[in-house]
Amino acid sequence: MVNGEGGPAQALAMSILVRMADVYGATELMDISQAHIDSTIYLGDATLEFAERLASLGARVVVPTSLNVSGVDECGWKDWAVKPEWAAKAARQMLAYERMGAVPTWTCAPYQTHMRPAFGQQIAWGESNAISFANSVIGARTERYPDLLDICCAITGRVPAIGLHLPENRGGDLCLSLSGVPAELQRDDQFFAVLGHLVGQLAGDGIPVIDGIVVSPTEDQLKAFAAAAASSGRVALFHMVGITPEAPTLEAAFRGREPEQTIAITVGDLRAARRELTTADGREIDMVILGSPHFSLEEFRLLAPLVAGRHAHPRVRFLITSSRLMKERAREAGILDPIVAFGAEITLDTCILASPMLPPEIRMLMTNSAKYAYYAPSLLNVRVTFGSLADCVRSAIEGRIVRDESLWQIA
Amino acid sequence: MITGRAIVAGEADAEALVTHDALSFWGGYDFHTGEIIDKHHPLAGVRASGRILAVPFSKGSSTTTAVLLEAVRAGTAPAAILTTGTDAFFALASIVADVMYGKSFPVIALDPADFATLRSGEHLSIEASGVIHRR
Fold it and tell me: In degrees rounded to 5, what are phi and psi of residue B78?
């Protein structure tokens, strides 16, 4: 491929891949059967030039390939503060990846679409939350791929045979054991996002095994956990004993090895982690933002009864970031109308972190997403209050921050 | 003198900026200014542009690589990056910057014990072999 039998784009992608195989210390490459491309996020001229270079050389993906969020809501950006020049360049970058034959899913939650991989499938995925979810919750096998390399893997169908692609490297390194954390708290809507935020900080560059979960988390709670742990930390694979597929038991999660370290997680640790996610200190609220990772059909289902027949306060905007597919499914399920009637706006293809869409008067956000809470203060210079979905809805209605603290005040 | 492993070989001669906390460049580095912007990070508000950034490893977003590529193009990247292990994200940014713009920066992995001796403000000179001289 490097010699150009597959065309100049494949030769370029292969030359980058071969140099990276050397970096990873791989002695061989292996096949993949799927890819997810995070390089879609438009940042500036370099990301666009890279995409257009590949596309102009005739790049084609050789495995089924989904696309992550882009830098713009292609159809809705004019409703927001996005500048036309940004929108035009971000749209060019979208087009470049579509021309390569990838499926325009435009979502950071590709595992909730028809492109969801299977247990044991070898894949090359970018997007930190998606990597973590695919590896941990599904049991597919991907290394933690960065932007720019994910597309090289998709164009060649190959990856370095290293890291999390190999079963022997997928055992846990450290044991994080919940200690005296009551089921009541574990059932709370915010619990898994908060736990993920904490685990990301504790795990360092190791694979964490979480023990002591006594509830059955929903897929969206595991999604929130994965996204949080891959934001505060670099967790590309985690095991939850009794919950994730490679961890039926503690021993299985460690693949027979001894944990390097065991750390207890207490209610006090979780309370402190939850406090860190809030960087605002008053009751002011300009916007509720939901959907990082992208809001799923199930999340629309949970939201609909909370907002039915109600109206958001006129001073508070209520924004959901999601994918075209999930919005369509919500519409088909008949649950979109009450949400729109409540005053919710829905942005597709992108999110508030990847697209400069928020007007400057939006300064105080509220969210149930630990990923939004982690990144928004730095990227957008806003302040954030973290709370449950119900807290977000109530606050939007009342026009001031309202949080039910009862479960989190237990000593 | 420290002997590192050149993950991406190259030379650099600049002041060190040292942290023991991992960093995501997406949400953590403004490529327009070369400043670290992650408000959770101890180096928030510090310019890393043109300095030798010692950071144990990348965390967070896959887009770290793309932010670093933008920084190389804009001339706001660190002069080199020193890590405690092989960090593919930093290495890839340097390799793609070389492919796209003929500009790369050294990425050197150090033994954690050597890494621990680095101090912000000291002057470092990196050879292509991965040997680092301290002045």
Answer: -60, 155
